[in-house]
Design a protein that fits this description.
The protein has 286 residues and is α/β, with parallel strands linked by helices. It has 10 helices and 15 strands. Helices cover 38% and strands 27% of the residues.
C-alpha cells in the first residue's frame, strides 16, 4: 500500500493546496491561488486543474477539506466561506468523473482531526477531538475510531454556540485578539516571541478563555486526546499554562488527569487531513 497515492486537497478562500500522499509523507505538493470572486465553474476548473498536476497512475483515491457545510454522503458543498459562488457544488461527482477514483468531501475541521488520527498525535486513540484555532473555532470528533459527522455534517460546531452575548469563537479564536488587543494574533505572536510583556499577557488571557471552550469539548465528547490545529496553535506554548490553570475547576478531575492536550506537530496538516478522509471512509490504511 505504500506505493499507492492518495490525493489530499485543502481548499481555502484564497488558495488551493494539493498534495500527493504516499505512506505517511506528502511526496509532492502544489499550491495555486483561487479567484474567490469568480464564477463557480471557473473556480471548479482551477481546483481540478491543480489536482491534475499531481495525479498519476498510482492514485487510488482523494479527499478534500473545505471551510463549508457539506453533504458528506453525496459530496455536495452547500456553502463555502469566502467563495460566494459556491452555493451548491457537486464536487464529489465532478472529481470522480474527471479522475476515475473515489473522492471524499468534508469540512476542514473534520479533515484535521482525521489527519491527526491517521498520521499524527491521535494515532491509536479511539476517541479524539481536534480544535482548529484560526479565523473561527472549528471542531472535529473521532468516536470509536471513526470520524463522527452527525446527521448533517454538523457535529462539533462548538464555535457557533452562544457565549457571552456572542459566539464561543469570538473568545476562542482570532476575534479575541482583535477585540482585546486591537491587533492581529499574528502580530501579537511576533511581539510575544520578542518578549513583549503586553503580548505575553494577551496570550495568557487567551489561554484562560480557550479553557472554557476546551471544557465544553471535554464535557461533550470525553476524548482521550484533544489536539489543537490552525494558525493560533503555533503559539501553544504561550497559552498552555493559562489554559491548564483554567481547567482547574473542571468537575471531573480524573478526566483532566487522563486527557492529553497538545498542538499538532504535522507538517502539511491540512493536506494530510484531507487525504486521511479517504482512509477513514474506506476503513483501511495507507
Amino acid at each position: 500500500m505504500d506505493r499507492d497515492t492518495i490525493i489530499g486537497v485543502d481548499l481555502g478562500g484564497t488558495k488551493v493546496s494539493v498534495g500527493a500522499v504516499r505512506g505517511s509523507q506528502v511526496a509532492r505538493i502544489v499550491t495555486r491561488p483561487i479567484p474567490a470572486q469568480a464564477s463557480a465553474e471557473v473556480i471548479l476548473d482551477r481546483v481540478t486543474d491543480t489536482i491534475a498536476e499531481v495525479v498519476d497512475e498510482t492514485v487510488v483515491g482523494m479527499g478534500v477539506g473545505v471551510p463549508s457545510v457539506v453533504d458528506v454522503a453525496e459530496g455536495i458543498i452547500r456553502r463555502t466561506s469566502n467563495i460566494p459562488s459556491w452555493k451548491e457544488i457537486h464536487l464529489r461527482t465532478a472529481l470522480e468523473k474527471r479522475f476515475g477514483v473515489p473522492a471524499w468531501i468534508n469540512n476542514d475541521a473534520n479533515a484535521f482531526v482525521v489527519g491527526e488520527h491517521v498520521f499524527g498525535a491521535a494515532r491509536g486513540c479511539d476517541h479524539a477531538v481536534g480544535l482548529t484555532l484560526g479565523t473561527g473555532l472549528g471542531t472535529g470528533v473521532i468516536v470509536n475510531g471513526r470520524l463522527y459527522n452527525g446527521a448533517n455534517c454538523g457535529a462539533g460546531e462548538l464555535g457557533v454556540m452562544a457565549y457571552r452575548g456572542g459566539r464561543l469563537e469570538d473568545w476562542c479564536a482570532a476575534p479575541f485578539f482583535r477585540r482585546e488587543a486591537g491587533i492581529s494574533g499574528e502580530v501579537l505572536h511576533e511581539r510575544a516571541r520578542e518578549g513583549d510583556a503586553a503580548a505575553l499577557d494577551a496570550f495568557r488571557d487567551y489561554g484562560r478563555e480557550l479553557a472554557e471552550g476546551v471544557k465544553i469539548a471535554l464535557y461533550a465528547y470525553d476524548p482521550e486526546i484533544l489536539v489543537f490545529g490552525g494558525s493560533i496553535a503555533s503559539a501553544f506554548d504561550l497559552f498552555e499554562g493559562a489554559l491548564r490553570e483554567g481547567l482547574a475547576d473542571f468537575k471531573y478531575p480524573h478526566i483532566i488527569e487522563r486527557v492529553k492536550i497538545t498542538a499538532s506537530k504535522l507538517k502539511n496538516a491540512a493536506v494530510l487531513g484531507a487525504a486521511a478522509l479517504h482512509v477513514d471512509a474506506t476503513r483501511g490504511g495507507l
